[in-house]
Design goal:
Length: 305
């Protein structure tokens, strides 16, 4: 097929992008989105600071705009993200343990109820593990006050709120086999063994020279799939340009295509000009919405050509 979305759909997969509500009014942004992609992830609009900046007062307008656009285009929607240490309003860290537990439950249940039936997969918990060799959990209000059990509690609460949404754990620097990915692997294995509801793991895929894509990438995705969860590439972007960048994209897409349970790929933005790391020119379209070599590489890899 001749677009990213249609090419992914030919093998039952989706090809998505992060989207910002504030750009939907830009004609080229919207037309590139609608032509090329069949899934979206709100880049910031569903995060805690955007949806519940004051306790108990929920603001959905920006996220609703993206959801309405995606639904009108028949696109899948990934919900991002319910429980994360970052972009967390100040009031959350001031709560006692029991109040924090209630606030977390209420946040999860409120968002998932508002979007019930509309979300393909939710990043229920995001970035809960530390970088480096320890495999330890990252400090956060949730970890520090509620302990390790907050993650499974979040997943159980999420399953009750929208039983039809896939529930994902999402993180970065877990793309290859390393101490951090193994810590996540062990958590998922434990969840599956004990019946904690988890359906998918999101591998963000933010690659650059300091954290490159490694040769064990496919093997790492496969070991998670073998636990009985879907794997998704959720925030893909690759610093660089030209052939080197295109080759990295090819390898990532080929790895997903080789794994039956790799259900889709999301790039973290449409055009380099709006990327969170714009100076790395990490995306598939340049600042003028021209297709880069990385675009052609992805299209060919999706089509197996
Ligand atoms: O909304 C405010 C706006 O009101 C204000 O005027 C402006 C001035 O700085 O800031 C705006 O907020 C910014 C927000 O993006 C929306 O544009 C924040 O400062 C900025 O920090 C925020 O960055 C986002 C970042 O997450 C925050 O952690 C990026 O857009 C977003 O791409 C990035 O996405 C994360 C994923 O959620 C999780 N994985 C890593 C990934 C990359 O960091």
């Amino acid at each position: 097929a001749s677009t990213l979305g249609a090419s992914a759909a030919a093998s039952g997969r989706y090809f998505g992008t992060a989207v910002a509500a504030s750009h939907l009014g830009e004609a080229q942004y919207a037309s590139t989105l609608d032509t090329e992609f069949n899934a979206v992830t709100p880049e910031n609009e569903m995060k805690w600071d955007a949806t519940e900046s004051t306790q108990g007062v929920f603001t959905y307008s920006a996220a609703d705009q993206i959801v309405a656009h995606a639904q009108a285009q028949n696109m899948k929607i990934r919900g991002h993200t319910l429980v994360w240490y970052s972009q967390l309003p100040g009031w959350v860290s001031g709560l006692s343990a029991s109040a924090l537990q209630s606030a977390m439950d209420n946040h999860i249940t409120s968002l998932m109820t508002h979007y019930k039936g509309k979300i393909y997969a939710w990043d229920v918990v995001n970035e809960a593990f530390q970088d480096g060799g320890s495999g330890a959990r990252r400090s956060s209000p949730f970890q520090d006050k509620l302990g390790d059990g907050y993650i499974e509690h979040a997943f159980r609460t999420a399953r009750a709120a929208d039983p039809n949404a896939k529930l994902c754990y999402n993180d970065y620097n877990i793309d290859g086999i390393n101490a951090k990915s193994t810590a996540v692997y062990n958590m998922v294995k434990d969840f599956k063994a004990r019946g904690v509801p988890i359906d998918c793991v999101g591998f963000q895929g933010h690659f650059n020279s300091a954290s490159p894509m490694t040769s064990d990438y496919q093997a790492n995705l496969q070991r998670f799939a073998d636990l009985g969860v879907d794997v998704q590439i959720t925030e893909l972007d690759v610093a660089g340009s030209g052939t080197a960048q295109a080759d990295s994209y090819t390898k990532v897409v080929q790895a997903c295509m080789a794994i039956q349970r790799c259900t889709g790929i999301t790039v973290w933005g449409i055009t380099d000009k709006y990327s969170w790391r714009s100076s790395d020119t990490p995306l598939l379209f340049d600042g003028n919405y021209s297709k880069k070599p990385s675009y052609t590489a992805v299209l060919n890899a999706l089509n197996g050509t």
